[in-house]
Amino acid sequence: MNKSIITLISLGLTFISCFVYAVEESYPFDDVQQQKIFGELVEELRCPKCQNQNIADSNAMVAIDLKNKTYELVKQGQSKDQVIDFMVQRYGQFVHYDPPINMVTIWLWLVPIAIALILVVFVLKKGRREKLGSEVDANSLDQAQAIIDKLESKGKS
Fold first, then answer.
1. Could you tell me the pTM of the whole model?
2. Is the residue at 15 inside a domain?
3. CATH number of the domain encompassing residue 81
4. What is the DSSP string of 92-155?
C-alpha cells in the first residue's frame, strides 16, 4: 500500500513538474530606456499571422521572430521610429497598429468621419420631420375639437 501511494505521488509530481519547463522569454537590456522602447514596440507591432494581436501577446512563430528582431534592433541602439520603419518596410503597413496618414490610409480616417456626419444629418432631419408631424397633429386636433363643439351645441338646442 505504501509503495503504491509513493508511486502515485511521484507520478503526480512528475506530471506537475512538466509545467515548470514552460519557457518564459527573457529580453535583458543594459539600459532602462531600451527596455522601455522594446516594451512599447512589442505592444505596437501587430502579428502578421494573428490578425488582431500584437507580438507581445502572440505565440506564433512569426511573432516570436518579430520580437527577437525587435530586441536585436533595440539592442543595437536603433530608435523606436527606426525599428518601426524596418518592420513596415519588411512586412508592410499592416504590421503597425498606428498607420501614418497618407494617400493610401486617408480613407481609414475619412470614412468614419463621413459616416458620423451622415448619421448626424439623418437624425436632425428625422427630428424636424417629427416636429412638423406633431404640429400637423395639433392642428388636426383643434379642428376636430371645433367640430365636436359645434355638434354638441347643435345637440343641446
1. 0.54
2. no
3. 1.10.8.640
4. -GGGBSS---STTTHHHHHHHHHHHHHHHHHHHHHHHHHHHHHHHHHHHHHHHHHHHHHHHHHH
Integer CA distances (angstroms), 32 to 66, 80, 82, 137, in order = 21, 14, 18, 71
Q: d(Cα 35, Cα 27) in Å, to the nearest integer?
A: 8
Alpha-carbon distance of 146 to 98, in angstroms, equals 66
Quick one: 48 and 83 in the same domain? yes
Range of the domain at 58: 28-100
Domain boundary among 81, 100, 119: 100
**Burial of 53 from C-beta contacts in 10 A (0-12 / 13-18 / 19+):** middle
Angle between helices 32-44 and 80-91 (to 10 degrees): 30
- Average pLDDT per consecutive 10 residues, the chain (157 residues; last block may be shorter): 73 63 67 90 88 86 92 92 92 79 77 90 79 64 84 75
C-alpha cell read off for 52: 488582431
Whether 83 contacts 104, CB under 8 Å: no
Instruction: Please report whether residue 14 resides in a domain.
Output: no
